[in-house]
Amino acid sequence: MCRWLAYTGEPLQPSTLVLDAQHSVVAMSLNSPLGAETVNGDGFGLGWYPADAALPQHPAVFRSIEPAWHDQNLREISRAVRSPLFFAHVRAAAGPPIQQTNCHPFRFDRWLFMHNGGIAQFGLIRRDLMLAVDPSLYPHIQGTTDSEVLFHLGLTYGLADDPIAAVGAAIRRVEEVGHAAGVQFPMQGTFAVSDGETLWAFRYSSQGRSRTLFHSADVPTLRAMYPDASRLDAFGDHAQVVVSEPLNDLPGVFLEVPESTVAVLDPDGFRHAAFLDS
C-alpha cells in the first residue's frame, strides 16, 4: 500500500528523517521490506506545521505525483523548512488513480491525516460511505481515495472534540457498511492524525492483521543506551517519531505499536491505549 512517517518535538528539518536517515522515507519508497509493496513510487506528500506560528495553526502541504526519490522540490523544501510536527507519506496506488489530490497527507482546517492500508472493495461501498459524510464537509473531498473519505468521516463524527472516538466511529461505520455488502474484512491500516499539538497514531484492521507501525523510544533513554551515537545529536529531548518501518537498525530505538492500539504522542511523551479491541 504505502509508507509514512510522522514527527513531533523540537523544530526539525524534515530532511533529517525524510532524506538522511539510514532507512528514510525516500529509501522506503524504493525498498520497503516490511510493506505490502516493495516500491512506493506513485506520488508523495509532506505536511508540516510552521515552527514560528502560534497554536492552533494551519499546516502547509506539498504533494506531487512524482516518485519521492525523483523529486528535487521535495529535497529543497524538506531542507528549507523547520517544523515541530510534520507528516511524510509515499504512495503505492491500489486502485484510485495517480493524481495530486489522491496523495497524502490530507488537510482540513488545522488537521492533517494520512493512512496506509485500504477499505476492501471500496468501489462497492463508496456511495454509502460518501452519503455518511456531513453535507458541509462533502465539498472539501477533492480526490477519489478511500483514505480521504475515511478522514472526512472522522471529521463528521467529531474529530475536533475527541479524535480517538471519532476515528473509531469512522472505522465502525466502514465495517458496518462493508459487512452489510458482504465484505468480510472491510478495514485495514495504520492512520496518523494531528491538530498541530498532539499526534495520534492508530494501528487497526478488521482481520486483526494490520500493517506495521513503530514509534521511537524517548531520546534521553536512547542517549543512555547509545552514548556514542552521533545521529542522536540532531534531536531534542522531546523528539518522537512514528513510522511504518524502523529508520535504522539500532536495537531498542523503535518500539512496535501493538495491534488494535492508538499511540498518543505529545510534549509529555507517549502512551498507548486500546483501540476498537472488542
UniProtKB/TrEMBL annotation:
Residues 2-278 form the Glutamine amidotransferase type-2 domain. The keyword Electron transport does not apply. Keywords: Glutamine amidotransferase. CDD domains: YafJ. Pfam families: GATase_4 (PF13230). It comes from Microbacterium gallinarum. This is Class II glutamine amidotransferase.
